[in-house]
Amino acid sequence: MMKKQIITIAGGGSTYTPGIVQAILNNEKRLPLSEIRLYDIDEERNMDMYLIVKFMLKKKVFQIFAFVQRMIQSLLLQDAILFSHKFVLEDWRCEKRTKRFHLNMD
Predict the structure, then answer these.
(1) pLDDT value at residue 97
(2) pLDDT tens across 4-34, in order?
(3) Do you know which InterPro entries this protein is assigned to (predicted)?
């Protein structure tokens, strides 16, 4: 059995968050989770996404140990895999940038 992972979503208040979480949950066998962490500098948006994702988890009856909506920044990445999706505005163009981290599934 593979070790359960902790996923931290930086920018967790984004409207992309439910889709990101759904994609992660659809691959639960390949990436077992113990915890999902949402972090966003906009606490109100983060709380909105927290409620939406909490509903998604309850509806699908996923067995995730913990779901953290807010935390101290120093603990954000502790023992976690970071996922970040952001848009950068440069010269009136919006450039999509996604950070990807390769996981060792052995």
Answers:
(1) 43
(2) 888 888 888 888 889 999 988 888 888 888 8
(3) Glyco_hydro_4, NAD(P)-bd_dom_sf
Tell me the sheet residues that pair with 87: 96
In a domain, 104, yes or no: no
**Scanning the structure block, which residue is given the tokens 């992660």?**
24
Six-digit token string for 24? 């992660």
Residue 47 resides in a domain: yes
Domain ranges, residue 66? 5-99
Cβ–Cβ under 8 Å, residues 18 and 53: yes
Contacts of 97 (CB under 8 A, 6+ apart): 86, 87, 88
Q: What is the C-alpha to C-alpha distance for residues 76 and 51, in angstroms, rounded to an integer?
A: 19
36 and 2 Cβ atoms separated by less than 8 Å: no
Q: Which two tokens stand for residue 47?
A: 């709380």
Residue 48 and residue 58: Cα distance in Å, rounded?
Answer: 16
31's tokens? 């990436």
Amino acid at 43: E
